[in-house]
Design a protein that fits this description.
heterodimer; A: Rossmann fold; three-stranded mixed sheet; 11 helices; globular; B: six-stranded mixed sheet; 10 helices; 8 strands; 37% helix
């Protein structure tokens, strides 16, 4: 771990104009900044015994992610659990730039594949659609569906086509809104864009589109790979979405994955409704396979829709014959962690010297954190694990 | 996700449920059961020298790690007849269980159903924390699994935490095997086994089924061996939910879009989160009464979910009386 003097230096490095007193830019001991001791900011990175700086870097990363997690709200808020999200991918010429390896479009597509997997893992009863834009036009790659296979297939095959021209944000948003028209009012409607181009080639007035988005209560978020563009930011902010510019690949991943947990609902807009859902039983395993209605393939196993008796092969899905949403109880349970988030952990206060505190989760000796709710001690690994994977504190349970 | 190899080591976390009021009704007494469990554990450790073990025990008040544990007390007598590593494990487990039982208060007859529930969700969360720590710190690939020896009943307030643990286990490719020794089938644990890819086994000791035999034949297999073996199939696990209002199993239910509670027929107001629904005929501007679920709402929801997922509706209510 970095020794205390280095950590103090790290904070003092950031000289804020507000810190200056009436003397102007004079430092703490009365002199000017250039008269002070020269700060060696590279001393924060320490080498370990074998000469590797890996542990230093992982420490810095974990400190950064801890800070971010501390700012996360743990209130039980109403969230749009049933979500309808349209992903807009920029396929303009700008996306062939090699600032993200191997090229922007390939890095984006690889990240979107992970995004789709993680999205359906955390929001099993939601639906996703893909839209691509290039050459001033927008094209729908997949329709709104809850099956990740369709989207992953489209990302692999169709989206890696030729890049051309300039993207059209207005066309993409209009196409997205059109796709979301089918979405019922109790679900949240969102459009998430990944853009690399600083320009957009639109047929009409984007203000009109913005007003239409606000009227339809669609939330637009964007991750931009180059720089902030005023129009894009304004659209995101006026529709209560999030606009981020990716600084590097990790930051791009973080910003994009922020759209995975369901957003908190705005009170005036939210409408709640009772959704009719079916809970199918497993079909009898016969000796002869029978076709499923979703893919028209022969299968032995499957589930029977309770309303029309049609066989579907996987859950969650919509029955293709009668349109009933088919889920199983664990799928609804996956969303509970968003409705009831766990408490944050904070740094433990001073303990009496010599007292060895054991981590409540795993029994390790160095337990430096404690849970705000149950006041039990936890170590760093358990902190990371509880907040990123497990989502319930062993002491509060 | 890499494929398991025959030479890969395993990490087994055994969760012992030593709820005294549940074990008092068992035809197999706790000390005999512990002997059988210890034989199973020794067998597991004998399979490969790299195999790792963690033992947790839980009852209705606490959950403690029995092995590995620091021995501050004097080391037990040297016994050259017993393999040293087994002796340490056996002694820790027996001493730990004895301590936990001695320190438990005697059951209070008025508390009723609360007595027969253990902190299984807490034990499962701790087990996953242990697994996370061990897998992060070993350099070679280690395949984790959890074995729960369950005696107590499902506890409705633990439903959400239990489901979170099960999904975390699924993500970490941890198999959860359940061995139900006493009592009725536990719906939550059946789902745990199904979702994580493990086995749910019910051992009926009253009819002479042997706990040790079941454990040795089914739970000893590691990730690699399980792909070769053909396991006793679970009878159809019913993933249907039951409605909150009548506690009957629903095929087609109405789900509140805010709190995801399930009803058998539509109603204007959700009874769990008090959300007024926008009925198409009547337009209401103030569709919401509150924008936050209070902790009371959480408890009501959890209690309702338990009864929602129980497959035995009226029997639960009458058995509790």
């Amino acid at each position: 771990m970095a020794n205390p003097t280095n950590e103090a230096m790290e904070e003092d490095d950031y000289i804020d104009i507000d810190d200056t007193g009436p003397e102007g830019l004079k430092g703490a001991d009365g002199g000017y900044a250039w008269e002070e001791e020269y700060k060696r900011s590279w001393d924060v990175i320490q080498e370990d015994a074998s000469g590797s700086i890996q542990s230093s870097i992982t420490d810095l990363n974990s400190q950064r992610s801890r800070k971010r997690r501390q700012q996360r709200s743990t209130e039980t808020l109403q969230r749009g659990i049933i979500r309808h999200v349209v992903l807009v991918i920029d396929q303009s010429e700008n996306m062939s730039t090699r600032d993200l390896m191997p090229s922007r479009i390939q890095a984006t597509l690889a990240l979107l594949e992970q995004f789709v997997g993680e999205f359906f893992d955390q929001n099993p009863i939601s639906q996703l659609a893909l839209v691509a834009t290039k050459d001033g036009l927008a094209e729908k790659l997949t329709d709104l569906s809850g099956n990740p296979r369709d989207h992953l297939g489209a990302l692999r095959d169709k989206a890696s086509g030729d890049l051309a021209g300039e993207p059209s944000l207005q066309n993409a948003l209009e196409l997205g809104m059109h796709a979301l028209r089918r979405a019922p009012a109790h679900g949240s409607r969102e459009i998430v864009c990944v853009f690399g181009s600083l320009t957009t080639c639109d047929p009409g007035d984007i203000e009109q589109t913005l007003r239409a988005l606000q009227a339809a209560e669609v939330r637009v978020s964007m991750v931009h790979l180059a720089a902030e563009v005023h129009v894009f930011r304004r659209i995101c902010q006026s529709t209560a979405g999030v606009f981020a510019v990716a600084a590097d690949e990790d930051h791009m991943r973080e910003s994009l994955f922020e759209n995975i947990p369901p957003p908190a609902l705005v009170k005036e807009r939210a409408t709640a409704d009772m959704v009719q859902m079916g809970f199918p039983v497993k079909a009898q395993m016969g000796e002869v396979p029978s076709p499923c209605v979703c893919h028209h393939e022969l299968r032995f196993a499957g589930f029977l829709c309770p309303r029309c008796g049609a066989k579907v092969c996987g859950l969650p899905t919509d029955c293709d014959v009668c349109g009933l949403a088919l889920v199983s109880a664990p799928h609804l349970a996956r969303s509970y962690r968003h409705l009831f988030p766990e408490d944050n952990f904070r740094e433990a206060g001073k303990r009496t010297a010599g007292a060895v505190v054991v981590c409540f989760g795993c029994g390790a000796k160095d337990a430096g954190f404690e849970c705000v709710g149950c006041r039990q001690a936890f170590c760093l690994e358990c902190d990371v694990f509880v907040h990123e994977t497990l989502h319930n504190c062993p002491g509060c349970v | 996700m890499s494929e398991p190899l025959e030479s890969d080591a395993s990490l087994l976390v055994v969760v012992l449920d030593i709820n005294t009021s549940a074990w008092s009704t068992s035809p197999l007494p706790l000390d005999k059961a512990l002997q059988q469990i210890i034989i199973f554990i020794n067998g597991y450790l004998a399979l490969k020298p790299e195999n790792k073990l963690v033992v947790l025990a839980s009852n209705k008040r606490e959950c403690r790690c029995l092995y590995p544990v620091d021995h501050t007390s004097a080391t037990p007598d040297q016994d050259i007849q017993v393999y040293e590593q087994f002796r340490v494990v056996d002694a820790s487990i027996l001493a730990g269980v004895k301590n936990m039982i001695i320190n438990t208060e005697p059951p209070n007859a008025n508390q009723g159903i609360e007595e027969a529930q253990s902190l299984i969700a807490r034990a499962l969360s701790k087990a996953l924390c242990h697994i996370h720590r061990v897998t992060e710190s070993t350099l070679s690939k280690i395949w984790p699994r959890i074995l729960i020896l369950s005696a107590a009943e499902d506890s409705p307030r633990e439903y959400i935490a239990l489901m979170n643990s099960i999904f975390a286990a699924q993500k970490m490719s941890v198999l959860i095997d359940i061995c139900k020794i006493i009592g009725r089938d536990s719906v939550f644990l059946q789902q745990a086994a199904e979702i994580s890819g493990g086995n749910y086994l019910k051992v009926d000791t009253a009819r002479g089924e042997s706990l040790l035999q079941t454990l040795l034949f089914t739970c000893l297999a590691d990730h690699y061996t399980r792909e070769i073996l053909y396991f006793p199939g679970n009878e159809q696990i019913d993933f249907r939910a039951t409605c909150f209002c009548h506690k009957k199993v629903v095929d087609i239910g109405f789900v509140c879009s805010v709190c995801l509670s399930i009803f058998c027929r539509p109603a204007p107001v959700c009874s769990t989160c008090q959300t007024k629904f926008s009925i198409k005929l009547v337009k209401t501007e103030s569709a919401l009464s509150s924008s936050a679920l209070t902790s009371n709402g959480k408890q009501i929801l959890a209690a309702s979910e338990m009864s929602a997922l129980s497959l035995e509706d009226e029997k639960t209510a009458t058995a509790a009386k």
